[in-house]
Amino acid sequence: MNSSKILFIMEGKKDDPKLLRSLLDAYKIVLDYGSDSSNVIVSYTSSIYSLYNELKKLDNGKDELADLFPIVQKKDKSLDCYSRDEFSAIYLFFDLDIHKRDEKKASMQLGKMVETFNNETENGKLFISYPMVETAKICDKKEGLFKEDRKIFPLENCEKGGFKQFAHNHTRSAVKTDSLNDWNVICKENYRKANWILTGCCSIPDIPYLKKMEQEDILDKELEFVKNSNSVATLSAYPMWLKDQLDTETIEELFYK
Fold it and tell me: What is the separation of C-alpha 33 from the centre of its chain, rounded to a whole number of angstroms?
């Protein structure tokens, strides 16, 4: 691998980077950039809608979003010692966090963000957790993300820290996020769930279809849940990022045997 670094922009300061580091550590043998020296992890510490508004302020009246890097630099000073050219790829991890917002306006903003940040080597690539980052922690040991209380999650139950509390209350029955085996289970269950969201089928999708799954398509389906039932289908951003990094043979070895 070349000397270029990878920039990870996380929404939060605590759980988000911790989960990412756990994932990177678990798959460091199969990832080209699993070493700490090549990864720079920063926190935006505000919502995706806040980031959208900051980007729009600097777009000079054009129907496109401004450059992300200087905005994030202002939010996380650890980026001050880097230039944009040092990064060969940028990934963004944010929550849907649509509860208590104007649905139409938020949906438009989300759509624009996913459309703009769809290539890690250009503007960056955005991955969204539905409804929040804690979804990575609620994979039930027996039923995965299809357990009745978490298959579809009401947005009203996300208010006042409701989803965080839900994840905390189910710690004992959920798969941990500590090891490769843990993450293999979490990823496989999220791939099953993504397949259900997109096709209605509860089985793990075939590998070519899994590799073709895009954030735009998932967002469209999730916004249908929001519009029709004021709820979301729980899905974690981290497994969806991982499958984009792995080749077909590695995916088969990890999740299909």
Answer: 18
Question: How many residues does the structure list for the chain?
Answer: 257
Count of alpha carbons within 13 angstroms of residue 25, beta-carbon side = 10
What are the tens digits of pLDDT across the range 4-28? 899 999 999 999 999 999 999 999 9
Angle subtended at Cα 92 by Cα 135 and Cα 109, rounded to the nearest 5 degrees: 90
Residue type, 87: F
Is the overall model pTM greater than 0.90, yes or no?
A: yes
d(CA 195, CA 223): 16
The DSSP call for residue 209 is H
Q: Which residue has the tokens 């756990």?
A: 22
CA distance 143 to 20: 24
The answer to whether 67 and 25 have CB atoms below 8 angstroms apart is no
Query: Which run of H or E residues covers position 182?
Result: helix 180-199
For residue 137, give the amino acid letter.
K
